[in-house]
């Protein structure tokens, strides 16, 4: 087991060392940690006085949304026809080494705990941002939220791992996981039907009763964690302790089952590890099976420009052939946020905040990084900043599609006027451009050390700083000079455009011989 422990700590040390391998990435990492630590401290130290009832209702609502997200993630993982629990490198070491079955399984569980903790911390940062306006954030509540998030993710990942081993040993055991999911989802559906608004209260009344229904507390792990947090807010320590204790017992039982798995699963686990590693390699090289077999349509004519315009022509042609500007996940998130705002009666202004979150998560550099790994890009005779701007065109069209999809139902659902929608469109387009430009700066700073998690954290930190000029400008114009909101947002769009262009200049060295592979 000492060799496996050494492997785990060496991998962990390598991940941390990668973040601190250069002064720029080390400084940014420390700034991000300090910023979020200070933000949580400020939220706790300077909390406003709110009613206890508002805390209970808000905690119930946000915990139900979070439970639904983890449950959805667990369902998707369990229903996958083929998957893997380790990569090729780990499989060749732990399954071929002189380790007992229990040592090997214990190592996999330690990896599960690490992954659960990373997911939990990311989720907690997101939830705290959303809860801070309606919930009194206290140290016990934040710690309990971290603990409940860790337990739910561990339960989901450990259950998936146990079903994985169970099915490898006995293929007929897949019906056990199908039966488990059917019972769990049916019970939650019955709770929803039980609270259906037969009294004429409508969907809003149904959801309000469903969120507060004590019967949900009987749902294993998810209901128990919700009961624990709500009990903490209500100062009902008995409910809090029962919820966490029951969850610990179930997670401990799953751990025991995994450590005592019987049967021969090594060969299949290695084959699955080879398969998933090859899939990831192809995805990094953008030769994944999904891209190869992606459905495309024929186009009549295609015009190609010269220089940097050739890049725009190529990417526009790809968009025309694939007809894929908006992902299903983004569409679902927009509908969920629209439903939340409508049910809570928070209005169109609050809805714009949610759409900024969608734009922030959508402003990734995946498409641009794909082109940056193609060497002919650096041979195109044009200035680096023009080529980088050309690479941003498809991503900006994607941002525009997200803005359009988020606004199209607002007049019907939220009663937004045309002037409000145009003003919001200006604001969202400006922030989309800013988020995308900041993402390029993150890519320029981290290069090959970039990971999705670090990119999101750095982007959040830089974005919060770079939106200050926009905030000062719009607030000054609207409240200082009394200009209409539409005109103020138009000027704000110009300000964000200038800030984004400065970020583009800072990221331009990516195309002047200092590319992703230069580290």
Automatic annotation (TrEMBL):
The chain crosses the membrane at residues 20-41, 61-79, 105-129, 141-166, 178-196, 241-261, 325-343, 349-369, 390-418, 424-446, 458-481, 487-511. Keywords: Membrane, Transmembrane, Transmembrane helix. Coiled coil: none annotated. Pfam families: ABC_export. It comes from the Bacteria. The keyword Lyase does not apply. This is Uncharacterized protein. It comes from Holdemania massiliensis. InterPro entries: Put_ABC_export.
């Amino acid at each position: 087991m000492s060799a496996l422990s050494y492997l785990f700590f060496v991998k962990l040390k390598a991940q941390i060392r990668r973040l601190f391998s250069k002064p720029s990435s080390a400084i940014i990492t420390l700034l991000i940690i300090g910023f979020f630590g200070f933000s949580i401290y400020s939220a706790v130290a300077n909390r406003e006085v709110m009613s206890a009832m508002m805390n209970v209702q808000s905690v119930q609502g946000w915990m139900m949304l979070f439970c639904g997200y983890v449950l959805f993630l667990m369902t998707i993982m369990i229903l996958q026809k083929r998957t893997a629990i380790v990569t090729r490198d780990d499989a060749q070491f732990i399954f071929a080494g002189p380790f007992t079955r229990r040592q090997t399984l214990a190592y996999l569980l330690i990896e599960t705990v690490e992954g659960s903790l990373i997911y939990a911390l990311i989720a907690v940062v997101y939830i705290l941002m959303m809860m801070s306006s309606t919930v009194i954030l206290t140290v016990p509540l934040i710690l309990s939220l971290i603990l409940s998030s860790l337990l739910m993710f561990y339960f989901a990942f450990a259950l998936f791992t146990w079903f994985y081993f169970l099915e490898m040993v006995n293929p007929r055991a897949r019906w056990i996981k199908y039966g488990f999911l059917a019972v769990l989802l049916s019970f939650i559906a019955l709770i929803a039907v039980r609270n259906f608004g037969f009294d004429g209260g409508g969907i809003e009344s149904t959801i309000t009763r469903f969120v507060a229904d004590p019967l949900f507390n009987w749902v294993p792990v998810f209901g128990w964690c919700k009961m624990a947090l709500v009990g903490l807010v209500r100062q009902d320590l008995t409910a809090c302790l029962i919820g966490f204790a029951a969850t610990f017992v179930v997670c401990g039982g799953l751990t025991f089952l995994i450590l005592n798995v019987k049967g021969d699963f090594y060969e299949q686990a290695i084959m699955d590890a080879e398969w998933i590693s090859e899939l990831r390699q192809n995805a990094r090289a953008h030769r994944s099976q999904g891209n190869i077999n992606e459905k495309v349509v024929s186009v009549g004519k295609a015009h190609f420009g010269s220089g940097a315009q050739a890049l725009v022509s190529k990417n526009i042609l790809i968009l025309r052939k694939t007809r894929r500007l908006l992902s299903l996940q983004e569409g679902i998130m927009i509908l969920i946020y629209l439903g939340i705002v409508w049910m809570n009666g928070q209005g169109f202004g609050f809805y714009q905040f949610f759409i900024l979150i969608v734009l922030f998560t959508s402003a990734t550099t995946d498409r641009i990084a794909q082109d940056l790994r193609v060497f002919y890009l650096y041979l195109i005779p044009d200035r680096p900043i023009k080529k980088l701007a050309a690479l941003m065109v498809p991503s900006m069209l994607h941002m525009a599609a997200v803005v359009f999809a988020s606004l199209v139902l607002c007049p019907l659902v939220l009663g937004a006027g045309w002037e409000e929608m145009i003003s919001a469109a200006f604001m969202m387009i400006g922030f989309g451009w800013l988020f995308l430009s900041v993402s390029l700066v993150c890519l320029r700073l981290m290069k090959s050390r970039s990971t999705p998690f670090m990119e999101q954290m750095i982007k959040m930190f830089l974005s919060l700083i770079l939106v200050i000029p926009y905030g000062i400008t719009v607030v000054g114009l609207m409240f200082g000079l009394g200009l209409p909101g539409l005109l103020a947002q138009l000027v704000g769009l110009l300000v964000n455009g200038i800030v984004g262009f400065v970020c583009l200049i800072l990221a331009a060295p990516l195309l002047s011989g200092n590319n992703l592979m230069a580290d």
